[in-house]
């Protein structure tokens, strides 16, 4: 199975791909999320892993837009703790390090560490694991990477400081993406759905939509507004619904459709629950 990820082996996307699909996968490594839709639509990959929101940094709005604009299907979700480690070429100490390179979000997750080490210069890079690979391949001394434990193992680096993230419960939610698909006989087993809708510009329209969800016992676990392109100050809403009864969910869709300007199912899948105990990453 060919799986597209943002980043390279050792990245958090790689960890999610392995945990979701197993280790017997072929990775297609992308340096930006915008490369992923075309790989899916052209059939070059079977699926992709894409980060969508983080407990500290919030939602990645541009990724919602990619999923929507390219009509991708959300096949599943996965929650992964963001456990950041400071790693270097073996044989060095923290006193030998003068620069730390990593992805901007990883750096943001580790602000407290840098406040405690103000002498370290911060350099932003496109991927956490790519820095680890660069250090190993070029025998670089004096520079550290912030990346996963898996990256340290793959590229044979030494971890100087473990779990340097600010929040021990820092976690990222990832979507598993495929081509848009037809309904399947086992869809009734799904317990979660991601939808996009645009409301009418009428008083109480959003409240009316929420009331339909309550009526059919749908748990609105997330609502995210995103600006509509070329329609200033107009917004689309992206929501996640959790349910026990797929039939009631379908009934709710039938009631919602005439109450909104547009309604789109981005994906129906089995709910994954966050596990807040520390996991090896």
Number of domains: 3
For this structure, what is the CATH homologous superfamily of the largest domain? Periplasmic binding protein-like II
Rg on CA atoms, Å: 21 Å
Number of strands: 15
SSE topology string: EHEHEEHEEEHHEHEHEEEHEEHE
Number of helices: 9
Helix content: 25-40%
Q: Return residue spans where pLDDT drops below 50 for at least 5 consecutive residues.
A: none
Structural class label: alpha/beta
Overall 3D geometry? elongated
Strand content: 25-35%
What would the average pLDDT be, to the nearest integer? 94
- CATH architectural name of the largest domain: 3-Layer(aba) Sandwich
N-to-C terminal Cα separation, in Å?
22 Å
- CATH level-3 fold name of the largest domain: D-Maltodextrin-Binding Protein, domain 2
Largest sheet: 6 strands, mixed
Q: So what's the CATH class of the largest domain?
A: Alpha Beta
Structure description:
With 281 residues, the protein is an alpha/beta fold. The chain folds into three domains: 2-81 and 170-178, 3-Layer(aba) Sandwich (D-Maltodextrin-Binding Protein, domain 2), CATH 3.40.190.10; 85-161, D-Maltodextrin-Binding Protein, domain 2 (3-Layer(aba) Sandwich), CATH 3.40.190; 185-269, Alpha-Beta Plaits, CATH 3.30.70.260. It is built from nine helices and 15 strands. The model has no long low-confidence stretch (mean pLDDT 94).
């Amino acid at each position: 199975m060919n799986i597209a990820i943002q980043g390279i082996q050792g990245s958090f996307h790689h960890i999610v791909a392995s945990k979701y699909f197993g280790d017997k996968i072929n990775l297609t490594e992308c340096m930006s999320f915008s490369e992923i839709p075309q790989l899916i639509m052209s059939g070059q990959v079977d699926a992709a892993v894409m980060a969508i929101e983080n407990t500290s940094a919030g939602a990645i709005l541009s990724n919602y837009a990619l999923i929507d604009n390219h009509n991708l299907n959300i096949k599943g979700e996965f929650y992964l703790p963001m456990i950041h480690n400071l790693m270097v070429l073996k044989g060095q100490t923290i006193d030998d390090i003068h620069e730390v390179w990593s992805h901007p979000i990883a750096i943001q997750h580790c602000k407290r560490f840098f406040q405690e080490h103000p002498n370290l210069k911060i350099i932003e890079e496109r991927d956490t694991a790519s820095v680890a690979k660069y250090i190993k391949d070029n025998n670089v001394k004096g520079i550290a990477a912030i990346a996963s434990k898996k990256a340290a193992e793959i590229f044979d680096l030494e971890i100087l400081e473990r779990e340097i993230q600010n929040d021990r419960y820092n976690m990222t939610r990832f979507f598993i993406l495929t081509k848009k698909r037809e309904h399947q006989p086992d869809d009734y087993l799904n317990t979660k759905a991601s939808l996009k809708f645009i409301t009418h510009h009428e008083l109480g329209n959003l409240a009316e939509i929420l009331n339909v969800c309550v009526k059919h016992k749908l748990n609105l676990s997330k609502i995210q507004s995103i600006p509509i392109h070329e329609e200033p100050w107009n917004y689309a809403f992206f929501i996640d619904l959790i349910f026990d009864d797929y039939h009631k969910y379908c009934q709710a869709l039938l009631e919602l459709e005439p109450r909104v300007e547009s309604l789109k199912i981005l994906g129906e899948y089995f709910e994954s629950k966050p596990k807040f105990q520390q996991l090896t990453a």
